[in-house]
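Q&A log
Question type: sequence-to-structure
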Amino acid sequence: MKKYFLFAAFAVFALALTSCSGNKKQAENPIAVFALDDLLDIAEQKVDETVTVVGFVTHTCRHSGQKCFLVGEAKGITLRVEAEGEIEGFTPDLVGSRLAITGIIREEHLSEEFINEYENNVRLRQEEGELCEAEAGNINEWRNWMRERNKNYYAIYYMDGLKYEQMN
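Response status: OK
Response body:
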């Protein structure tokens, strides 16, 4: 009986500790952390939310330092990060670094009208002998994305970066 009483007292004490710390965690609203590749898969659901994303810096804007570009492990898709909040700027020495950047996911739209005009300009340049396969590929990618999601625009996701931490 004495063992049962001690066990019950310990269980109540442990429950009280976890419930107190649980309330504290709920009040802090922890920020979700994503690898860049994973975040881009669900970016549409995270627009205007604060998240932390981990990726590798491929480029920083040398003139203003107000933007950097991250790539994930797959290295096929990039995310533009704008310097906001505590971030005064991104320096060129960050290129190649692995960063954890906390910020707000934003979305821009390329309208179907814009894409049509862009495609016409590309065709005109191609007729003049200025062939750019990358631009034609982008247009196809945008149109496929729109068709798959039944949208009349192409979404570009970026981040207003609030703070960052160098991981390596």
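Response note: Helices lie at 2-28, 36-46, 112-127, 133-149.
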